[in-house]
Structures are given as C-alpha cells and as structure tokens.
C-alpha cells in the first residue's frame, strides 16, 4: 500500500535572515528548515509547532502556508511536505531540544541558496517560494471531524 511520509517545515524569518537547523547526516553537517514528520493524533499546525520547538527551542505558531510539495527523494521515499511561514519581530536565541540538531543558524537567504550542504533541494526551493511573496491562509487546512478540534481550522486546535 502506498503511504507517503507526511512532513512539515517552518521557514522562519526575522531581521532579513532565515533560521536553519544543522544536523550531521552520514558524517556531513547539513542544513534544513526546522522540519519533521507528522505524528499520530496531531494536526499539521501542531506538528509544525512541535518540530519548531524541538529543533530550535522556539515556541511559535506558523502564520501562513507557503506550499505543499509532493516529492520523491533520491532513495525513492515519497513525501508530502507542508511548508509554513513564520515572521518574527527579531531573531530569537535558539536552544535545540532534539539531540540530533547540532546547532541553529540565522542566515541570509543568499547564504542558504549558495550553500552546498542542504538536506534536500526542497530547502533552497522553500527559500525561493518565500522570496516570491506567496502566502496562503492557514484556514485552507481544515481538520474535518477531527477528534481533538471538531471541524475547527488547524490553527485553532
């Protein structure tokens, strides 16, 4: 049975810089947006909030949906990736809670786009989408007859 991995990612912006997390994969330091898998019994927004906190120590709620990507990784793993935007008034200090995150960096969009250590091509694509100015309301994501929020928009869960 086909079951793609459902993931969430947060593109976090403050003071002209974007937040990336660094993790070591196969001995190589790689950069990604704070991101991870949707877990059972949580909404997409809850997953984004949880992943943001686990990987950066920042507690915040995404403000907009940027894009939904359907992607097949080089190892043939299928993904549905929900990309969210969060604009903060200032760069916050980070304290990763997840032991797999080595550190966090506030970088310019250009630094990310020129990097050769991105976790996947979706990291740079996410920056380009953010730069385009496209934003969609979180109300597009509805939890229908969801046991924890009975039809409320995911942002209200």
From TrEMBL:
GO MF term set: hydrolase activity
Keywords: Hydrolase, Magnesium
Pfam families: NUDIX (PF00293)
Membrane spanning residue stretches: none
Cofactor: Mg(2+)
Segments forming domain Nudix hydrolase: 3-129
Entry similarity comment: Belongs to the Nudix hydrolase family.
Protein name per the record: Phosphatase
